[in-house]
Amino acid sequence: MQEKVTKIKEAVKVGLAFALVYGIALKINWLSPSWAGWSVAAIVATSGGESLQKGLLRIWGTLLACVIGIAIISIGAQNRWLFMMLTAGWLFFSSYNMLANKERSYFWFCAAYVTLVITAAGPSPAGGFYIAVFRTMETIMGIIVYTLIAVFLWPRTNIGAIKEATGVLLDTQTKLFKEVYQVFCGKNQSDHLKELGQLQVTQSVQFNKSITSEGSENFKVQELKPMLDQYDRLNISMLKSFDRLFGGMEDLSKMDLLENRSDIDNYFKEINIRFTGMSNLLSNPQASIAMEDVKLKVDSITQSDISHFDRAALAIIITELNILEKISREMADVAMNIAETNTGSQKTAFKEAKSQKKPGFQLPVFDIEYFKGSFFVAFVIIIGFVIWFYVDPPGHASWYILGGVFALIFAGVQQVRIVKLVVPFIVAMFLISLVYVFILPNLTMFYQLGIVLFACMFVIQYFLSGPAIVVYTIT
Question: What angle separates helix 2-27 from helix 446-463, to the nearest 10 degrees?
Fold first, then answer.
């Protein structure tokens, strides 16, 4: 039920933004209201990004695209192949950055997409600047309208998903430490440890996704994000330490060598207190965690009847336990800082776990998959350009723009077979033709057009999913 309500809300926001940008552009008599609608459609097709920060990235990308687009038109106005190669080269560059730089992905998408829209004015100096400016203005207007609606009308936040992912992960880690203790005491087998370890890895990935997914740029999440990122880094360090610990345990032939050691008992008791305390902080931010020093000593291994191999394995185990103790202490500190931020008390200052040195100059490392995606975009741009200039079928520049936008969208998901888009595209064109032929000619007032636009976008957003929603939204 909650999922349906969320889908309805998102569909309403998209439909409202789409209808509003058309109305605004018509009211102030801008050159082509469809350009503003295009910006909303492209944003929705690539992301439901609803934060002001994402909106600003799109605006900056649009401004950069305006400069690049005008430069391409100016340089290649007298040579269509130079025009095409400049456009394809810029799309290749921006596509690679879009794929490689996840934090600035929206910026580079807009820089690529809006360049297509602007250069669709054609390699003609007459009116090129005029069209580029209007397209930039309408694209920015579409971005602003959609962003404001998405931010202030039913804003989404994934703070609940973050709490849920954290709680599940803490529960698994608590069980994992208890299992390790049972194995050390000779009361359990280590087979179950592997299952819990794999579960911890899966849940850690889910936690990482929760702090970077849709809604993570909500103001509250952004306020906590530096601490959440640090907690994620500590959690990854814990995963690596657990992996080394399991390796040492597999090398140990006698798993009861640590039985009846009071320091081991105190160690796991303290670790359990820390993880239980972190779990309690999720429901009660006013809670606190009292931590004690439980560092183990390697030289306390005094058994004389064990082999040198087992002695070395025990030394590795105790070293990793001390590393895990340090990580868990830092995780508890971060958890308390997060809780204090939530309550507004801020009793302790937030500190980074490790001060990272800025790396010196390094040669860039290129990713072959990103190169493939970028070449795919450039190739589609060239094909669309050839169709536009040498065939000029109905739709004209739309073949150039549509092909480029679809290529940008699917460059990062190369596993999707483009053939699967053919049927949705044909169906979309048929349905849109029906609307164009039988409904639009009967409209006389904008409110009628607004209702049609809203209804179309609402239906697409609510009833479709996957590649189909991209095809129908852009079409």
Answer: 150
Which residue shows structure tokens 């087979």? 191
| Residue pLDDT, tens place only, 143-194 | 788 878 877 887 766 677 788 888 889 999 998 888 888 877 766 666 677 7
Residues 239 and 285 both lie in one domain: yes
- In terms of phi and psi (left: phi > 0; alpha: psi -120 to 50; beta: otherwise), the region of 215 is left
The pLDDT of residue 419 is 58
Query: Is the Cβ–Cβ distance between 216 and 225 less than 8 Å?
Result: yes
> DSSP letters of 247-304?
HHHHH-S-TTTTTT-HHHHHHHHHHHHHHHHHHHHHH-TT-----------GGG---S
Residue type, 124: S
Number of independent structural domains in the chain: 2
Dihedral sign computed on CA atoms, order 16, 20, 21, 22? positive
pLDDT-derived band at 90 (thresholds 50, 70, 90) equals very high
Pair 138, 35: CB distance under 8 Å: yes
The parent domain of residue 421 ranges over 2-155+369-474
